[in-house]
UniProtKB/TrEMBL annotation:
Catalytic residues (positions): T208
MF (Gene Ontology): L-glutamate N-acetyltransferase activity; L-glutamate N-acetyltransferase activity, acting on acetyl-L-ornithine as donor
Protein's pathway: Amino-acid biosynthesis; L-arginine biosynthesis; L-ornithine and N-acetyl-L-glutamate from L-glutamate and N(2)-acetyl-L-ornithine (cyclic): step 1/1; Amino-acid biosynthesis; L-arginine biosynthesis; N(2)-acetyl-L-ornithine from L-glutamate: step 1/4
Gene responsible for this protein: argJ
Enzyme class: transferase
Name the UniProt record assigns to this protein: Arginine biosynthesis bifunctional protein ArgJ
Organism of origin: [Clostridium] hylemonae DSM 15053
Subcellular location: Cytoplasm
Function: Catalyzes two activities which are involved in the cyclic version of arginine biosynthesis: the synthesis of N-acetylglutamate from glutamate and acetyl-CoA as the acetyl donor, and of ornithine by transacetylation between N(2)-acetylornithine and glutamate.
EC number: 2.3.1.35, 2.3.1.1
Catalytic activity of the protein: N(2)-acetyl-L-ornithine + L-glutamate = N-acetyl-L-glutamate + L-ornithine; L-glutamate + acetyl-CoA = N-acetyl-L-glutamate + CoA + H(+)
Single Gene Ontology BP annotation: L-arginine biosynthetic process
Keyword Cytoplasm part of the UniProt annotation: yes
Main location: cytoplasm
NCBIfam families listed in its UniProt record: ArgJ, PRK05388.1
Amino acid sequence: MKKISQHLSDSSIKEEKNMDIIKGGVTAAKGFEAAAAAAGIKYKDRTDMALVYSQAPCEAAGTFTQNVVKAAPVKWDQKVVKSGSKVQAVIVNSGIANACTGAEGYGYCEDTAVAAAEALGISGDGVVIGSTGVIGKQIPIEKLTAGIKVLAEKKNDSLENGTQAARAIMTTDTFEKELAVTLKVGGKTVTIGGMAKGSGMIHPNMCTMLAFITTDADITKEALQKALSGDVDDTYNMISVDGDTSTNDTVLLLANGLAGNPQIRYGSEDYKAFAEALHVVNEYLAKKIAGDGEGATALFEVKAVGCESTEQARLLAKSIVCSNLTKTAIAGHDANWGRILCAMGYSGAQFDPEKVDLFFESRAGKIQIIENGTAVDYSEAEATKILSEPEVTATADVKLGSSSATAWGCDLTHGYIEINADYRS
């Protein structure tokens, strides 16, 4: 099955005023370095550890999985972020999730922080951790600590090292995911760069998804956390691949202040500009995760418009994008609109189904499928052509108000079963 998601058009990136898209990821901002290493934690033929390092201590913000079962690194990072400790390094491994591993697994987080502190010459309180992979297996700590030494020796601030780090954190992902933007704050150039991984066990309320975002902005911890927390509901929490909420979801945002801008405080105009730029990075990474769903051949975007409230719009959009029947219809390029209306009906949102309009759109064109809850006289051949593109959008208009929301997912193919049936092997 041909994988096309890495070639999804970037033309849909909504550049805000006073903001530019630039090349790079986690090393694009001043003072950030990265590295990748092959530690043999699970994979024998590829890198499986990454380091993100800041030359100066950072304010840290984070959002985490809403699964009651939380992996050891999630618990560790929650403690670090809540404590207010300045963070200077992120250690990430792929292949083993360090989830459901008890006190031993949590102890390995402490061992990781100690090893990183020693190798990098920083405080162990300033080390956060990410893990992704198989649940229930213990980390081979000797391999991990050996990998940390390699990472410390290889780190630099090149864009290539940032890309290598983005590749090292992948599991079933088929390509690395990274983006960087710049904006002006008080006459100074501020950069925000990020990398993410995610392909399966992806569902709203965070997913088997790790995202690490770096910025050289001088910004208060309060403003940093509010900017991140306020954005996840419209980005990472609006994607789904398979309906499984992971144990390891983590988004970390680090700010080292090296841009030299006037400090950004919550509620200011500079804060609003920073939050808008952060949203661009988060939305881009979230869409790349959705489009790289396991076995997927298409990014499926769902827009719920004409809603009474944002909450109603989110419920409708997420219900459609999470519908397995709808996702298989997209895989078959079949305009089976009844599945979409059905998914809207069990979403929990109240609306009049006899007022709903539905449209499909892609680079091949736009077509209306239903009007006021019933089918219009449309061409099945034209609909199939539109649904055969690598990016497909469904827009549902419930004609109740002016609120809207967008969710992202992918088609559901035989490839998803093939990947997950033998994941541990």
